[in-house]
Model the fold of this input.
Amino acid sequence: MDSDTTGSLLVLASAAAFGTLGVLGEVAFRAGLSVPSTLALRFAVGSLVLWAGLLGYRVATGGTAPALGLPTREMLTAIVLGAVGYAGVSYGFFVGVERMSAGLAAVLLYTYPLFVVALAAAFLDERVGRRTVIAAGLTLGGVVLISGTGTSAFDPVGAAATVAAAGLYAAYIVVSRVTLETTDERVLTAYVAPAAAASLTLVAALTDAITLPATAAGWGAVVALGVVATAFAMFAFFAGLARVGAGRAGVLSTTEPAVAVALGAAFLGESVTPPMVAGGMLVVGGVVLVQTAGE
Done:
């Protein structure tokens, strides 16, 4: 399997893992966790898994690469990516969910591929061909159909927070792409996750929102959030990003809403409407188009 195909599959796997956030987050909220505490625990568990995996790999391979230390510049970049980038994206999105419907917030958040393609073209000299533009339009159209099946009042603060999260996520992807040119994706992920955990713990403390799960299901959700939706999802995304570029990774990642809708229907009893099915088909069409784009 060539590097391009491997990278695309890794990004798709990452999107599927990130798609579990809604179901697992709902279980955590029902168990009594606040939003910042849920996110802080998610990244804390993910950090433990990532570092345990890296240390175990080094032991198994006799202490060979990857080197766990980072030069000062790359380490500071990773910390900012986690504490400001990833933490900010997560928190901004949930502010939108709290003030509007989850569907409307998802529509606004998933404008980020457009930001990614624009930033990649402006700062990474990545070519933006016609097929990538069409693929972005198809996938975003699919996201609108999937997420916009319900009605909800528009809230300016929630909308602003979510659009800011979309722009921040795009910048996060582009900066990560540059950093990955000199940094192993596993090591970068291992620094980003604890920085996000620390940042969100501080937010929880400052807002008097430190809570813990009250049930075994709640703890199970926290562990799954850390292992599946953080450690695996972040590593797979970085590994794919290093192989396919920021523009294509951004478009491929928009398969996440389709996964979230399917999981919501299966585990939360959420309805699946014809517009949702049509939206899913558009997303898949966009993924196929961008994957076969010979640009």
User: Anything to note?
Assistant: The CA atoms of residues 55 and 68 lie 9 Å apart. The chain has a mean pLDDT of 83. Residues 216-244 form the longest helix (29 residues).
